[in-house]
Amino acid sequence: MTTPNEDKEAIRELFSEYCFRMDDRRFAELGALFTEDGDWIARYARARGPAEIAALMARNIPAEPKRKHFVMNSLIRLDGDRASARTSYLVVLQASGAGLVPSVAGTYEDVLVRTTGGWRFRERRLVHDLAAELGLNLPSTRSSPAGA
Question: What is the pTM of this model?
Answer without folding.
Answer: 0.85
